[in-house]
């Protein structure tokens, strides 16, 4: 298994998320419009941005945990049972900390 390729993928996705989070934060910091109807519409948009930000923050946490496992030399090993995680699973979910059997149970 080419762990370097997984690390490259994880780091690229991490950089993308960090950029997205910066744009979301910038958009949320905009001064609200004075018109009440516009403000209500913008608030709905802000709620969507906040939800996206929370989802991306959670993904960032999973990516950082996977990069930490790479640094420790345990990436690709199930944290629950210690068996190898199938490469196909890691290709589908590069942040997977558990093998398919443990994840299902």
Automatic annotation (TrEMBL):
Q: Which residues form the DnaK suppressor protein-like N-terminal domain?
A: 6-70
User: What is this protein called in UniProt?
Assistant: Transcriptional regulator
Q: Name one Pfam family in it.
A: zf-dskA_traR
Keywords recorded for this protein, A-Z: Metal-binding, Zinc, Zinc-finger
Species source reads: Dinoroseobacter shibae (strain DSM 16493 / NCIMB 14021 / DFL 12)
Coiled-coil stretches are: none
Q: Where are the zinc fingers (dksA C4-type)?
A: 78-102
Keyword Zinc-finger included in the entry's annotation: yes
**Any idea which GO molecular function terms this record carries?**
zinc ion binding
Which domain of life does this protein belong to? Answer: Bacteria
Chain ranges of the Zinc finger DksA/TraR C4-type domain: 73-104
């Amino acid at each position: 298994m080419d762990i370097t390729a997984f690390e490259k993928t994880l780091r690229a996705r991490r950089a993308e998320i960090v950029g997205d989070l910066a744009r979301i934060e910038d958009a949320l910091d905009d001064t609200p419009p004075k018109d009440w109807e516009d403000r209500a519409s913008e608030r709905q948009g802000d709620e969507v941005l906040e939800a996206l930000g929370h989802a991306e923050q959670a993904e960032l946490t999973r990516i950082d945990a996977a990069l930490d496992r790479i640094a420790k030399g345990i990436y690709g090993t199930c944290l629950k049972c210690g068996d190898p995680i199938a490469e196909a699973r890691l290709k589908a979910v590069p942040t997977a900390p558990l093998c398919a059997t443990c994840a299902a149970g």
